[in-house]
# Entry
Amino acid sequence: MITIIHEHQTLSVNAKVKGGHLWLPAKDVEKNLGWTIKPEGLCREEKCIPYPNDSEDALLDSEWLNVSKFWTLMSKPMLHDEMKETWLLGAGHKDRSHKLASLEAPDFTLPDIDGNFHSLSDYRGKRVFLTTWSSW
# Structure
């Protein structure tokens, strides 16, 4: 089982890692990622993205979809842990730009140093100072 973090949800899916890429059974793509595999490409709502069919860059291998190549094709960020057991499928820059332009931060919940959880929405209407840090 592989863990996929995607669109504010964490999924435990029957997937595989082959050649350093994340592969998901084609039958599970719509249920887990919201994209439908059609002859014209991978589609979500009215948006369809054509995918290469040549053997070297193919996204579909028999009954599996190469999710990491598809995410790269869409210019969306993707991360995985060293063991490739957990994958984060991020939103693209266009999605993030739209959210930033609205000047409204998405709600999130995080623990404080004492383990008490706080949501950003708890402080709506108040001034909030957020700071982050990362070792990478």
About this structure: The longest strand covers residues 2-6.
